Amino acid sequence: MIQTRHDPARIGFASDNYGGAHPAVIEALAVANNGHVSAYGADPYSEALPALFGELFGDGIEVYPVWNGTGANVVSLMALTERWDAVVCTTDAHINTDECGAPERVGGLKLLAIPTEHAKLRPEQLAIPMREFEDEHRARPSVLSLTQSTELGTVYTPSEVAALAAIAHGYGMSVHMDGARIANAAAALGVPVREFTRDAGVDVLSFGGTKNGLVFGEAVVVLSPERVRGMPYLRKLSMQLSSKMRFVSAQLEALLHDDLWLRSAGHSNAMARRLAAAVEALPGFEITSPVHANAVFVRLPRVVAERVQPDFPFYLWDETDHEHPVARWMCSFDHTEAHVDAFVAALAAANA
Fold first, then answer.
1. Which helix or strand (DSSP H or E) is residue 144 part of?
2. Which of 153, 151, 212 is closest to 16 using CA atoms?
3. What count of other Cβ atoms lies within 10 Å of the Cβ of residue 245?
4. 134, 204, 244, 289: least surrounded by Cβ within 10 Å?
5. Is the model's pTM score more than 0.85?
6. Can you give the C-alpha Rg of the chain in angstroms?
7. Model confidence over 269-308: pLDDT tens digits?
8. What own/partner pairs with CB < 8 Å and gap ≥ 24 does 6-10 have?
9. Which residues are bridge partners to 318 per DSSP?
10. Which candidate, 136, 155, 73, 146, places its Cα nearest to that of 114?
11. Residue 215 backbone phi and psi in degrees, to 5
């Protein structure tokens, strides 16, 4: 038995990656751990995934478990593109800002990043000159990548996704969705996940799990198999093929069982709303982005942030205004109302 090397009572709001694994996920790992089964996805847990995800997205899909979100995005984009292609995204997109250039260096893709408000693209921003598709001197826009929920905690409605996808498809492009927090978007919208993915024109989805209670693992869900090529090979050469894949797949099955993915995300969203409502009443605090999912972005006095961060870790997102930076607070499935209230009390005391 290893010794405990952290303080289990210390709670932070820096990232939903800071949270532990859901007990049901740990139980699933224990179940999958018994005995010997085939490797590299030829196991019954992995083979069950298309049918399980099919309950959410319909028949005819393909599911590829991977190690992490960056891998899911890179494999997805590679499968939708040629070597001379480009991907349209927002300047805030995770693939553009937080994946260490992996889409460019591993995927060999050019990113065409568009500045947006609250990290959401608008249809008029996709007016791409036709020369971009026909000029051999330019990387050809081939994929539109949307993040749901976005890096600023906002959510695209089904009609917004459909409008953007229709424009992209009209150009002959495919549509990828980075769904690292897809569960939070589904819980916020209150509609079936298929309504703002497959039915809205999304072709390939990176389905997130780690930020929603998994130990590790995500899934690439191919909603339009006719638009991709080489997925098994691309997953392997991108170092995303797990030899003991049953441990990724069993976690995903636990997440989908009895809508655990949706219930957990709904709880984290509720904690974010509780946190936002409480800090809005504090003098000198300003919510800077709509709170749709499980993220709260707030401008606050730097001195308050520095006083509270040692006890409740969180990141400063934008320090352009040095004395009043913008902080990002992420809520997780394992945050409680007591955790939120203690954090707010600490902020209020530091602000007094």
1. strand 140-147
2. 212
3. 24
4. 134
5. yes
6. 21
7. 999 999 999 999 999 999 999 999 999 999 999 999 999 9
8. 10/311
9. 326
10. 146
11. -70, -45
